[in-house]
Amino acid sequence: MVLALALTAELNGVTDLLPNDTEDNPFFYTFKVQCTSCREIHPNWVTEQNEISGSRGEANFVWRCKSCKREQSANIKEKPKAYPHSDAAKKQNILEFDCRGLEFVEFKPDGEWTAKGLESGTKFTGIELHEGDWFDYDEKASEEVSITDMKWEIRRA
Ligand SMILES: *[C@@H]1O[C@H](CO)[C@@H](O)[C@H](O)[C@H]1NC(C)=O
Ligand SMILES: [Zn+2]
């Protein structure tokens, strides 16, 4: 089953919100996992790394359900997509993954994100979203920038 992580957010003065996910500096995507056999939701958050550039075809997330003991796996399909600025917040898929025997049911935006100034092109790095809204100041544009009203959703791709 192919699932997608979708985001809806208000980007003010910035665009192209993206996980900082490179070969040298991989991003760990944090999810809650549900077993599709016994419907058990694993109580702990699990992390998955994107290994597109490495061993192709190999599952990059393998897990065994504690209740029914079945083995399950998930694969991130491609590089994450940048979330663009728009006047009205639009839902967009950031990431797609192929899940076998499990579903990701909740996402936690841990890790560092990047974005750039809408007009100025100023680079913002080290953006943290796990506590919710993000605020900063764009020196070049002399204006406050922010990312607010984030809604994360996992849906069928
Ligand atoms: C990603 O993070 C690394 C390490 O903090 C940093 O050196 C790099 O500039 C960041 N990349 C982007 C595109 O922001
Ligand atoms: Zn199970």
UniProtKB/TrEMBL annotation:
Signal sequence, renumbered to the chain: none
SUPFAM superfamilies (UniProt xref): MAL13P1.257-like
Swiss-Prot/TrEMBL keywords: Metal-binding, Zinc
Matches recorded under InterPro entries: CXXC_Zn-binding_euk
GO molecular function, one term: zinc ion binding
Record bears the keyword Metal-binding: yes
Pfam families, A to Z: CXXC_Zn-b_euk
Domain of life of the native organism: Eukaryota
Assigned protein family: Belongs to the UPF0587 family.
Protein's UniProt name: DUF866-domain-containing protein
Lineage of the organism: Eukaryota, Fungi, Dikarya, Ascomycota, Pezizomycotina
